[in-house]
C-alpha cells in the first residue's frame, strides 16, 4: 500500500473525544521512548507528523492521524515511564483501558518492543493484558539499526520463548528502523490487507 496523504486529525484524552469510528483504526503502543511516534513518521514519509523526542513521555494524548482519507493511525502515550507519579500512571491505565476496550473500529494494536532488549516484564504483562481483553495485536521490534541482525534475532527468540509460556500461538512480528526506514512495506502491506477485510465485513453486515 502507498501512503498518499497523511494528516493530523486531533488529540483526545477520552474515548468520547475520538473521531467518529467509521474507518478502520490501528494504534501504536509501547514503552516510552520505544519509537512509536518515529515509526508513524517513517511509515507516512513525513518527518514531523507525530512529535518525536529523546525525552520519554513526549506523547501524552491519543493522537489520531488520517491516512489516504481511508484509515486511522493512532499514536498513544507510552507506558513504563519511571518519572511519573503513581496517580499519573493509574490515570494512564484508565484512559488507555477505556480506549482499548471501547474503540469499536480498532482493528489491531501494534505493540512496539525495543529490539535491543531482552524481554521486559512490563511489555509481557501488557501483551498478556491485551489477551485478557481479547484485543488483536501484532508485535513490532523497533530500532533494529542500533545493533546487528544476529542480536535482533536473539532478542526475538527470547521474546518468543517468553510468550510461549502463556500463549499457544504467536502474533505476526515486524522488524523496523525509523532511522534506516526499514520494515515499512511489511507493516503497510499488513494494514492494507486488514483494511480490505474490514470493508468486506462491512459490506456483508
Ligand atoms: P513517547 O512519546 O515518549 O512515549 O516516545 P515514543 O515511543 O513516541 O518515541 P519517539 O518516536 O519519540 O522516539 C524516542 C527516541 O528514539 C528519539 O530520540 C528517536 O529519534 C529515537 N528513535 C526512534 N526510533 C528509532 C530508530 O528506529 N532508530 C534509532 N536509532 N533511533 C530511533
Ligand atoms: Mg511518542
Provide a descriptive summary of the structure in words.
By secondary structure, this protein is of the alpha/beta class. The chain has one domain: 3-Layer(aba) Sandwich (Rossmann fold), CATH 3.40.50.300. Helix content is 36%, strand content 20%. A seven-stranded mixed sheet has the order 1-3-4-2-5-6-7, with helices on both faces. A hairpin with a 3-residue loop joins strand 3 and strand 4. It is globular and about 40 Å long. The two termini are 25 Å apart. The structure holds guanosine-5'-triphosphate and magnesium ion.
Q: N-to-C SSE series?
A: EEHEEHEHEHEH
Bound molecules: guanosine-5'-triphosphate, magnesium ion
How much of the sequence lies in strands comes to: 15-25%
Q: Give the structural class.
A: alpha/beta
The CATH topology assignment is Rossmann fold
CATH superfamily caption: P-loop containing nucleotide triphosphate hydrolases
Helix content: 25-40%
- Kindly report the average pLDDT value: 92
Strands ordered across the widest β-sheet: 1-3-4-2-5-6-7
CATH architecture: 3-Layer(aba) Sandwich
Number of strands: 7
Poorly predicted spans: none
Number of helices: 5
Describe the sheet with the most strands.
7 strands, mixed
Tally of domains: 1
Distance between the termini: 25 Å
Shape: globular
Amino acid at each position: 500500500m502507498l501512503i498518499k496523504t497523511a494528516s493530523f486529525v486531533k488529540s483526545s484524552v477520552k474515548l468520547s473525544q475520538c473521531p467518529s469510528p467509521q474507518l478502520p483504526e490501528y494504534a501504536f503502543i509501547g514503552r516510552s521512548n520505544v519509537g512509536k511516534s518515529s515509526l508513524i513518521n517513517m511509515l507516512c514519509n513525513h518527518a514531523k507528523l507525530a512529535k518525536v523526542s529523546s525525552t520519554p513521555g513526549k506523547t501524552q494524548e491519543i493522537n489520531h492521524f488520517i491516512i489516504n482519507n481511508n484509515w486511522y493511525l493512532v499514536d498513544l502515550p507510552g507506558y513504563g515511564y519511571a518519572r511519573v507519579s503513581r496517580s499519573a500512571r493509574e490515570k494512564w491505565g484508565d484512559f488507555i483501558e477505556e480506549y482499548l476496550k471501547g474503540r469499536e473500529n480498532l482493528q489491531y494494536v501494534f505493540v512496539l518492543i525495543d529490539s535491543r532488549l531482552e524481554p521486559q516484564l512490563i511489555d509481557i504483562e501488557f501483551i498478556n493484558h491485551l489477551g485478557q481483553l481479547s484485543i488483536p495485536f501484532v508485535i513490532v521490534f523497533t530500532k533494529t539499526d542500533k545493533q546487528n541482525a544476529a542480536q535482533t534475532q536473539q532478542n526475538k527468540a527470547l521474546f518468543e520463548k517468553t510468550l510461549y509460556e502463556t500463549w499457544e500461538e504467536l502474533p505476526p512480528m515486524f522488524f523496523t528502523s525509523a532511522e534506516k526506514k526499514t520494515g515499512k512495506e511489511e507493516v503497510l502491506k499488513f494494514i492494507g490487507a486488514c483494511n480490505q477485510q474490514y470493508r468486506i465485513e462491512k459490506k456483508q453486515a
